[in-house]
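User: quick one, sequence for these tokens?
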């Protein structure tokens, strides 16, 4: 039966346990190891004294403080161990405490402390072996190898701990970056929804206001025209509601069996209908002109093209006091150029307001550009260039 299923949980519990409890248990274990010669005195022929036991205990008890004061603990054990070897009652067959403090210093000590301790123990082991009665060559190798191995395990533990800390820090950074990306995406989506709602509501309300102002004037003299005005108000309201459902559909969970909440957003193909509705509802002569060969546009660019024309016509209805307007679609190799020109009184302070800001933001978000100002023959003109799908990446870069 494999030992792996219980080794990992045991190591995790040991790592997360109270360090003082663990160090006390380790000190008790080392004290037990150095006391074995007194527990089983008949197993060897070394001379035993109570002073020798106290010196042996001095190599174990300081380990209780090995993590609170690692360098001081290492010095205490480093002094007691050669004293025990010189006193020789009994000699230290295995340097249990020394190996523990070397591991601790390699793990927790400062660089200069680690170097001093390793060099001191290597030199100390070599010198104290000279006081051993009839030392054998393999005993030199055994003790020196024990020192090096204990220190090496400590280095591995330190490197592993640093690597784990780096991984955890990287995971925290990635989590923060992911949260920041999510927050930016939410902010961008909210901004997009706000622009769409502004365009839809401003357009619909402008048409409704125009018709509502005209209705009372002709209600007695021309009832049929008044009725048409009220029909136009209702149609504008219904169209606004339908578009708002499209916009807010992204905030809803998918409906069982589909539904109209996920209707596609309007694009270039819906511009003739938009132009027709504005002409009928606002009494504005609007002409749509198209030149060039249509090219594929990204979905958000399609929506931006529709909203740009919608907002430009809304500004014409609200601010320009124009009698006619022209919407031009110029398809080129690089994409689409939209031009909306009216014959109104031209730009004034605050002309377009937030609408023109929204037009510029939409164009920039798609990698395009926008400008607005007085037209070549007076009036007001909005020009927006939107890149085609193949040129989108270069435009955004």
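Assistant:
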């Amino acid at each position: 039966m494999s030992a792996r299923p219980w080794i990992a949980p045991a190591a995790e519990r040991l790592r997360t346990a109270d360090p003082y409890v663990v160090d006390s248990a380790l000190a008790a274990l080392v004290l037990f190891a150095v006391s074995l010669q007194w527990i089983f005195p008949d197993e060897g022929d070394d001379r035993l004294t109570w002073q020798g036991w106290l010196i042996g205990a001095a190599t174990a008890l300081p380990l209780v403080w090995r993590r609170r004061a690692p360098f001081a603990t290492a010095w205490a054990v480093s002094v007691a161990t050669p004293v025990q070897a010189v006193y020789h009652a009994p000699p230290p067959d295995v340097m249990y405490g020394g190996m523990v403090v070397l591991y601790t210093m390699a793990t927790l000590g400062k660089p200069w402390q680690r170097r001093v301790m390793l060099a001191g123990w290597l030199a100390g082991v070599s010198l104290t072996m000279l006081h051993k009665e009839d030392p054998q060559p393999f005993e030199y190798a055994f003790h020196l190898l024990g020192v090096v191995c204990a220190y090496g395990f400590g280095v591995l533990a330190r490197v592993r701990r640093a690597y784990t800390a780096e991984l955890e820090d990287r995971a925290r950074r990635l989590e923060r970056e992911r949260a920041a990306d999510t927050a930016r995406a939410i902010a961008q989506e909210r901004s997009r929804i706000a622009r769409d709602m502004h365009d839809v509501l401003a357009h619909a309300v402008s048409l409704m206001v125009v018709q509502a102002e005209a209705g009372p004037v002709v209600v007695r003299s021309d009832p049929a025209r008044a009725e048409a005005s009220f029909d136009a108000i209702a149609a504008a309201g219904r169209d606004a509601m339908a578009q708002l459902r499209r916009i807010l559909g992204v905030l809803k969970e998918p409906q069982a069996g589909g539904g109209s909440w996920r209707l596609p957003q309007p694009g270039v193909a819906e511009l003739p209908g938009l132009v027709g509705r504005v002409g009928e509802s606002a009494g504005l002569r609007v002409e749509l002109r198209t030149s060039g060969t249509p090219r594929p546009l990204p979905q958000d660019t399609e929506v931006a093209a529709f909203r740009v024309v919608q907002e430009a016509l809304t500004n014409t209805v609200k601010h320009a006091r124009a009698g006619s307007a022209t919407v031009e679609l110029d398809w080129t190799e690089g994409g689409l150029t939209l031009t909306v020109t009216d014959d109104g009184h031209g730009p004034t302070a605050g002309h377009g307001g937030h609408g023109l800001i929204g037009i510029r933001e939409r164009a920039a978000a798609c990698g395009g550009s926008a400008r607005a100002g007085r037209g070549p023959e007076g009036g007001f003109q909005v020009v927006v260039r939107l890149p085609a799908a193949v040129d989108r990446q270069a435009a955004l870069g």
